[in-house]
Fold these 2 entries.
Entry 1:
Amino acid sequence: MNDVAATAGVALKTVSRVVNDEPGVNAATAERVRQAIELLGYRRNDGARVLRRGRTASIGLVIEDVADPFYSGLSRAVEDVALRNGSLVFTGSSGEDPQRERELVLAFCARRVDGLVIVPAGYDHGYLAPELHAGIRAVFADRPTGPALDVDTVLCDNAGGARTGVAHLIAHGHRRIAFLGDNAVIFTAKERLSGYREALDAAGLPYDPSLVSMGPPEQARVTAAMAGMLALDHPPTALFTGNGQTTVAALRALEILSARDPEPNSSRGGGSASASPRGPASPRHSGPASSGPGGQESSREGGWASSREGGWASSRHGGQRLAASLAIVGFDDFQLADLLSPSITVVAQDPIRLGRTAAELLFRRLAGENGPVERIQLPTHLIPRGSGELPPATF
Amino acid sequence: MNDVAATAGVALKTVSRVVNDEPGVNAATAERVRQAIELLGYRRNDGARVLRRGRTASIGLVIEDVADPFYSGLSRAVEDVALRNGSLVFTGSSGEDPQRERELVLAFCARRVDGLVIVPAGYDHGYLAPELHAGIRAVFADRPTGPALDVDTVLCDNAGGARTGVAHLIAHGHRRIAFLGDNAVIFTAKERLSGYREALDAAGLPYDPSLVSMGPPEQARVTAAMAGMLALDHPPTALFTGNGQTTVAALRALEILSARDPEPNSSRGGGSASASPRGPASPRHSGPASSGPGGQESSREGGWASSREGGWASSRHGGQRLAASLAIVGFDDFQLADLLSPSITVVAQDPIRLGRTAAELLFRRLAGENGPVERIQLPTHLIPRGSGELPPATF
DNA sequence: AGCAGGTGTGACAACGTTGTCAACCCTCAG
DNA sequence: CTGAGGGTTGACAACGTTGTCACACCTGCT
């Protein structure tokens, strides 16, 4: 800017005025300055500007993993709202690691972002208190923080959604309904489990711990859990899955279990009357590369299959038939849910609306709105597609 | 920092030294400073630091849409590399709009990011020249820029991938192969079309424009294009789709076309022997919310169905049977491709590797590596799963 | 002529850091 | 006792902006 001023033969401040379209500059002078700017290829340094003015016109977004469709939708929504508000977005994936979340948040704060949208990985956000005190606004999305921090939060109706989904299965005649959820330390997983129990309670059905399995949505774990349930004396006739990744893993598990000794007329497992040959798909390529640093694929075939096969194969029920007729409702909608056979019934959240709501709330705060802390709950939406309307299997 | 210095009874510079773990500070003094920092909840202002030091330790990432699984994978990879290099990431979605891309890039440059990873929407990046001259490094990913700008680029082998995929169909006996690609202004779309033609040429097959349709992957357009092709005198027996979204749209189109008058034993369309009822899925909810601002869903049912039904329904071939037996290979892997019936054969790119490669190249440049401009091409990978190995239908 | 009020311009400090350099205190060898 | 040298500390300028204030000039009025 100094150079521009020298070139144009004016003072620094005049250049600043031209650059910022401030009034009170002679048209001729302004033109001279603009030419100098053009000539020198000058671009204002927003870092310095920010230092002087206080506001950075940027926000930080911390999510679990951009590569997860749920969060990437949320991400895009936040981005759009930010753009509309003239703000840039720092994005960071915590990978469900509270330590990394903390580092990201603090790094964003050190850059003096105006505000934060956080999908928290941990519960303890004491480290945020000084930042909030220093004037950085934060909105929690998808999951709350502990009660210690009083801060705006936008959630989905996790319990309600799960209740609706499970009630839907009950309404279709199911009495033995399994629940496959994410790691129990995760807020949404707990809430959905609560919803599951509430629906059972409301229908007067007992809660059977052997029908519930919580843990990371890794294929090996999910497959093992399902095989175990199907081998029970009183196996489930329906399954409620607690999130999108778990739903997909469960479907793959059914495919694996059914394919072990497929029935000729099963709708699952490719055993239909079509002439389509099962391709020579090697197991390593059965799905698109997962987001994280691998590890999931390698365990799929080895891990459970060898260790549990005996137990399950000897089940007196014939697990294959059970697997092929299991009704399913999943929490979270996902791409192609409608093209599977049967199509998958889901309880849909709206990640875009979630992100938009959180970001808009943040910008309202930044604009000076100082009402009481808000706690917004967004509705979920049951989408019946077929898999959730299957009747209980009887053999 | 001033306050901290005052509280601790030391000079500004000493606090700076403590904060930055510089050597040469008495342990007792350092401890006193740390206590003052703790007491006041002080956090270094990285903006000011950046101003003084020159490097911002941040990069900008401009992609088409974070919500697209391909780009969100790329995104995550870039993020991870950046984190490893102690850098933060500004993310922005251009939405395939050159103007918005330009705004984002310039905004990032104004913040003095150290470097940029750009998936360009347009071809003309003249506006970047001054920035590059000013020392900002840039790496183009997935698509190149025009020849005017000499800059590092990481691409996939688009033509080669398409060639492989189409050759695969030819090897399975197909002679009439349709190509459904993205908008022809997009580099990758053009390249893949070239690969398609090369494969035809290599096999001595004619190029038939009536089997080729390029345009945005909207459901209505894709459905119409496919219906038109299936109604031809010599309809295609196989289809190659030019990207993930188009593949999915094509599958939905087949579902729509087949379902219009389904054959009892078709593997597609839910007409299998299973007892699974088609759920009462309303058309508005057939898929998860698409990323952009809607518009796609509403047109799915209305747009084409009413205007073209007559033409297609009167086809002398019975489009349903054609649709049900069409072999498919798609460019891009996608989630659940392996769980459809038949599973979908794809030519897979590796978005994570793409992002990682681009980001690592960027950071090598930032570390001072000054070799000639690099142009890296990543391989693609054919994954046979079933849909690409179907034989040509004969009626 | 003198003065109010407006327009255009510039000098200067400040934002919160860090790099440079100098000063201080101590210890130890000459 | 003197001086060299290391360890510790601080004063100051600079990074590139913008807010504040003041100045110079012009216009139109009394």
Entry 2:
Amino acid sequence: MPLTIKVNEETFTPRQQAVLTAALDLLVENGEGLTMTAVARRASCSKETLYKWFGDRDGLLTATVQWQAAKVRMPVVDRSHLNAKALRLSIEQFARDLLTVITGEVSVTLNRTAVTHAAQEKDSLGIIVLENGPLAIRRRLKPILEAGRDARLLRFTSSEDAYRTFFGLVVRDVQIRLLLGDKSLTQSNIEANIEADVKAATDQFFALYGAKANP
Amino acid sequence: MPLTIKVNEETFTPRQQAVLTAALDLLVENGEGLTMTAVARRASCSKETLYKWFGDRDGLLTATVQWQAAKVRMPVVDRSHLNAKALRLSIEQFARDLLTVITGEVSVTLNRTAVTHAAQEKDSLGIIVLENGPLAIRRRLKPILEAGRDARLLRFTSSEDAYRTFFGLVVRDVQIRLLLGDKSLTQSNIEANIEADVKAATDQFFALYGAKANP
DNA sequence: ATCGAACCGTACCGTACGGTACGCCTGCGG
DNA sequence: CCGCAGGCGTACCGTACGGTACGGTTCGAT
């Protein structure tokens, strides 16, 4: 019987964090390279310690994803004085952050890992990734959207729907293509277009939800 | 050395198709349940035959995904007389088909399998899924969009961009949530909202790319 | 100085699974 | 009737990997 995994306890000792870093590195380098032996060797620790700390392989995986996903923090957008320009900048900033995070190597790896995990009737990693990815962004964007509505700069009925449309406009087919390993989407390729994409998505979002838009 | 896999040859004997069906069933039932022994037992054939026909496990997997993905065919939309109403119906139909396919159990399984595969520096399955999923839809939608533009019903510069925006508006965060195993997205849940979602996405698409829209 | 906890390194075990070999049956051409 | 190709079922092999055990080492507390 494996030990209970401490999923809610986010505090890891520096040594443990070194182990998690090693595990993440292995994941990024080679998605399926995360074997207990490899992690132990990379982190210069014994397998016994891994099992003592994380219970079993799944526990180590969960801790790694959890710890790493929680590190992805969007910068908070200033909400103090909300004129049209500031709102637009905030939305643009969210689009930029969303695209940057989602196209990052770590994010792709984490999402792939979670999808693989979900393919085995285990959804814990998927929940963690969802919670720290899309849902985290949603939580931060929502007050901005509602402030925009209160200031009569935006018009929508459901902030949920508005957010999901925003997500779609920004992400489009980029994420799924990255997850599927589409070679025509290189990192430099994305970086070169990110500003144009951010602007386009923001324009479209305001076209749909701006105060002047048709209901 | 495994035999060369016949990826371009789409013709399988009925017996082979029965094997592929068994493989797909196992995949859908339990993502990681596709072991050679399990397939052989399910299809009532010998492992030796599997290896003779498909070379190795990867070949069987590729053949399964290839064969199944190619079966997903969108109905062709009539393009004969293209007034505003017909165009809108066509777009709506695409949105509906796209959503229906993407949220289907088989599609989710195939995408998960391909993502898992891509996590191991193998992108062949990802390419197959991309080619038969998003890209197939794009190929079919593109002439409709351009016909709409020629008829001055739509306005856009790049049909590529228009398609990708359409994809984003329709799919939003549904696919990634399904891939990650989000429990709050049940099949019945999606089905109940699909018509409303289709209408909303089409409305938004026309708001952005309709002839009356701002450039 | 001594003890014990924590931990490293490594050897070891069990199992699952990819891949192969082989014996047997069936159907078909001669 | 004979022989043989194709295929089924099963036994088997090798390996990779999850998980455990254990001796040796470091280090802090007493």
